[in-house]
Amino acid sequence: MGARSVVRIRRRVRRTLLWRLVHGTVATCLRYRVTGLAAEGAFFAILSLPPLVFGLAGSVGYVVGGFGPEAIGDVKGQLVDIARGALTEDSVQRVIVPTLDAVLDRGRADVISIGFVLALWSGSRALNVLIDTITIMYGFGGRRGIVRTRVLSFSMYVVALAIGIVVIPLVLAGPTLVDSILPARLEFLVSLYWPVVVVASTGFLATLYHLALPERTPWRHDFGGAAVAMVMWLAGGWVLRTTLTRTIGGTSIYGPLAAPIVVLLWLYVVVISLLVGAAFNATLHAHLERRTEARRRVADGAEAPREVSPRPAEVLPGVTVGEHPLEARSTDDVTDDVPDQPRAK
Q1: According to the lineage, what is the superkingdom (predicted)?
Q2: Could you read off the pLDDT of 81-106 as tens digits, one per residue?
Q3: Which letter does DSSP use for residue 86 in this model?
Q4: Which of 68, 79, 116, 273 lies 20 to 30 Å (CA to CA) from residue 291?
């Protein structure tokens, strides 16, 4: 077999594998109603958004305060720009800017209380629903109990909140800090900052998939779905922002509800991206399990079951091959086999 034939076969195998993964992902999404699960996740996410903001607002000021006035100003500017993408200018100036001034200038110790714990519990509802929907997309729905799922979601929410308190200011003020720290000959590394953030976010999504399942899978196998989710989220967010900028640029028919609807749509894009990534991982895991099983059979020397041909019928004396035995026997032979019947008197 020539080299061209080998390359052609490999390309055909890759195309077949890609088609099977795409087909399996679409079939999984349709089987488990991915749009309905995404709507459920987005609804609980927007309900958990105020407790999340409450928790971050009480703690992030302590971290940002250590970077100095310039870093605080950069973080404020980044957050205000993000808020302008979803809210009106009047809402940003009346609500967002005063809140950021009060929160980022100093920490808020008053939220570290029972109310803060209740806010954590309320905020973890979205993560609880997200974990539940991810397990459904993997086909593991109902494997983990309600209590275990709630405890897992609360624990992951607290850990994610603690990480976010440190990471969010670093992400927002990171390019400025990196530019000021690096020497002039290494300034080209600043352009790698956001790609590194994207890769780290993909690793975080893979960890979420890994921990959400009741049956652990290899962590590296979850990177495929995490990459799919990240690409879908970036592309979907860009399409959503472009569409809303053109349709809600002026006076909106939704009035004051325009901003909450935009946030809900954005959360819907986030959740549906995560669920499609979970469906891709489920299809990939099924393929890897089948391949592992096939390799194990080959290693054990097991062969595929052969089709057993029927045993050749015994040829009776006086019977031609292919002829039914009863058809070859004469009437006298048949009557000889019948026992004598008593004659009627």
Answers
A1: Bacteria
A2: 766 655 556 656 766 677 666 656 55
A3: T
A4: 273
One-character DSSP codes across 299-341: HHT--PPP-PPPPPPP--TT--TTS-HHHHS-HHHHHHHSPPP
Residue 195 pLDDT: 83
Q: What pLDDT, in 10s, does the model give residues 201-211?
A: 899 899 999 99
User: How many CB atoms are closer than 10 A to CB 174?
Assistant: 18
- Of the CA atoms within 13 Å of residue 344, those in its CB half-sphere come to 0
Domain boundaries, the chain: 21-297
| Start-end of H helices in the chain | 3-31, 34-64, 69-84, 89-91, 97-104, 114-137, 146-181, 193-212, 223-247, 258-300, 325-328, 331-337
- Sequence-distant contacts of 252-258: CB under 8 A, at least 24 apart: 258/88
Contacts of residue 3, defined as CB under 8 A and 6 or more positions apart, other chains included, come to: none
Identify the pLDDT of residue 23: 92
Residue with tokens 């958990």, as numbered in its chain: 48
CB distance 41 to 269 below 8 Å: no
Q: How confident is the model at residue 68 (pLDDT cuts 50, 70, 90)?
A: low
Name all contacts of 79-83 with Cβ < 8 Å and 24+ positions apart. 79/172
Distance CA 345, CA 342 (A): 9
Task: Estimate the crossing angle of helix 258-300 against helix 223-247, to 10 degrees.
Answer: 160
